[in-house]
Amino acid sequence: MRIVFFGPNGSGKGTQAALLKAELTVPHVSTGDLLRAAVKAGTPLGVKARAVMEAGKLVSDEIVLGMLEERLARPDARGGFILDGYPRNLAQCAALETLLARIGQPLDVAIELDVPDRVILERCEIRFRAEHRTDDDPAIVRKRLQVYREQTAPVARHFADLGKLVTVSGVGKVDEVFARILAVLPRAAA
Length: 190
Ligand code: AMP
What we know:
Elements: E1 2-6, H1 13-24, E2 28-30, H2 31-41, H3 44-54, H4 61-72, E3 81-84, H5 90-102, E4 109-114, H6 117-131, H7 138-161, E5 165-169, H8 174-184
Bound molecules: adenosine monophosphate.
């Protein structure tokens, strides 16, 4: 099963992706994780990416695509993958389509985890008070949400045009949301 999984920070995407990975036994491929690993390892690409990431901007399409290509070529991704954090813009949508066609792994479904901004702000505020994570600071969460809404709307439309977009409500308990996700997976995965 080949899935693109997307949703804003605080939507519960990480939690749900982990559950889905266990259910489908396919790797969870997060471009954010791949980039953070490259930064930590100090590879040439990591060195380039670091400053961009620290500024909260998007790393160049070329760098991210190269990393993704390498990751999807690994044997554990032959049976499918859950892609997280990619594509983030329309150029990346096109690049992904070309890459997946070339490796003979077309996408099955794009799942969007939908949580209203009000709920995300509430969740992050509670976590901010408890854990003091700087990225949960309400001002930063608002800014990220704005960027997410701007950049993701065209990506969602792209998958909708291909007839591959499924939107799932991310409001409620973890197991309730997970049950909704399982219910929308194409039959082949069930
Ligand atoms: P994330 O963990 O998905 O929030 O990603 C963390 C950071 O990595 C982002 O703020 C970007 O700087 C960079 N990044 C992750 N995925 C991409 C992507 N698909 N395109 C460009 N930059 C990305």
